[in-house]
Amino acid sequence: MAELSYDYVVVGGGSAGCVVTQRLVQAGHSVLLLEAGPKDDTLYVRMPATFVRVIGTERTWLYETEPQAAAAGRRMTVPQGRTLGGGSSVNAMVYIRGTARDYDEWAAQGCTGWGWSDVLPVFKRAERNQRLSEPLHGVDGPLAVSDTRYRHPLSLAFVRAAQEVGLPYNHDFNGAEQRGVGFYQTTTRDGERGSTAAAYLAQVLGNASLQVVTGAQVQRVLMQGGEATGVAYRVGDAAETTVLARREVILAAGALASPKLLMLSGIGPGAALQAHGIALVRDLPGVGENYQDHLEVPVYGRAREPISLLGQDRGLQALAHGAQWLAFRTGLLSSNVVECGGFVDTDGSGRADVQFHVLPTLVGDVGRDPPAGHGLTINPCFLQPRSRGSVRLRSADPAAPIVFDGGYLREQADVDTLLRGVQLARRILRAPSLRALLSEEIAPGRDEHVPDSALEAHVRAFAKTVYHPSCTCRMGTDDAAVLDPQLRVRGVGRLRVCDASVMPTIPRGNTNAPTIMIAERCADFLLADAR
């Protein structure tokens, strides 16, 4: 029986994979999209506020690090999307691009064509903003960006309290100035999540040129003569299936899975691959290196009254919220939960080095319960990590988990930035607008004056990922780069990577919008080559 073939095979139906697939199909090409997880057909994905119910289910991967010596020896968990839409189907929907200087620095690092003047038109092309327009926003793209329909009293109080300690209000974190506090715009439309599966992929699902296979676990990229010819994958316990790509294979599996697939396919650090018995196709020592992520630390405040989100997902209250959302797409379930926050310069550099994610409830982490009762969580997060981690193979078995070292808090500068963020969060917690609703600080300390040593211990014991893994297949023009600036794997034909792994350094902010921009640019490169 003849092997199936398509113009393009896209591995990973997440934030990037859905975008590049839609653009290729719209241009008249045949595409096979392979996604390891199930479809995104659950109300918990569509309802913005219920994304927490998806984390830890079959629709997410739970990647676990090796013990992190600088983070109290803990193994830390990094959830990633495992469904159509990927991260954009399970995240908090915060729409942040990063700053112009982030991208100009990419260009300065050898990523030619990735400066702010190059990427801004692509951000705008993708965007359909409810409130904002020129010169910095788009209004006609597929990706809905809107203000949330619901704002919790604790979120409103945080924004006022942050102004009371001297932080300016900012109505657009993607405007000319990122710094300030306010409410996040979100990738939602009419009170419903706007994932890339809903915004992009849905437009072409009925097209005869597209085949989508869910539950497909890709084993490796097929190589011949130094170029990619297709992929091998399995669905459940079925026999391995091989498919051919007439033009190119695109890896869009994310910053933890894409380097793994490259290494399983013989592309990566040569000695390490050969030690696993993998035939070397291309010695690229940078594959899996340069791992970066954003970490945050919780600062908890106890509410005077039972006003937080605790208990709103149970009993008659849950039924009432569900009925309101189903009938009108309004109310609590239209909230992205992380409604507000901000960007702050704590080191005097003139650029934000800390971002706040604020939740109107007490929140723990994967495997760690939050404090009991009603309250508020302020999470200061560092934006430019100095620490670097790595992704390596555990064995040549595609089903084996990776050896994942986040490198978290290895550099003291990262700890110091989180310390400054925690100190500022504690000041905000005690400002009048929050003091009116909160009775006390729960952690890191009830007393106003807590020694820096105790705050540092809190940082190392409670720092957690913001789920922004990136930079493990970085592009550039130097010898250590994995990709060239058109996202082609260096020295390998007909193979590109298109997800957050291609970033040379992580942008200052949430990574979903930049990943969508990267996918739009990848489609441009592919279509230009096809012409």
Description:
This protein is α/β, with parallel strands linked by helices and 531 residues long. Among the domains are: 4-42 and 197-292 and 471-530, FAD/NAD(P)-binding domain (3-Layer(bba) Sandwich); 149-183 and 295-382 and 410-462, Cholesterol Oxidase, domain 2, CATH 3.30.410. Helices cover 25% and strands 23% of the residues. It contains 14 helices and 26 strands. It has helices at 15-26, 43-46, 87-90, 100-108, 116-126, 153-164, 196-199, 258-264, 270-275, 315-328, 412-429, 432-435, 452-462, 512-530, and strands at 4-11, 31-35, 60-64, 77-81, 127-129, 143-147, 180-183, 185-186, 188-189, 192-193, 210-214, 216-224, 227-235, 241-251, 267-268, 282-283, 295-296, 299-303, 340-344, 354-359, 375-382, 390-392, 403-405, 438-443, 464-465, 495-497. The strands form eight sheets. Strands 1, 2, 11, 12, 13, 14 and 26 form a seven-stranded mixed β-sheet that branches. A six-stranded antiparallel β-sheet has the order 7-19-20-21-18-24. It has a three-stranded mixed β-sheet with strand order 5-6-8. α1 (15-26) packs parallel to α14, α4 crosses α5 and α11 (412-429) crosses α13 (452-462). The chain is globular. The mean pLDDT is 97.
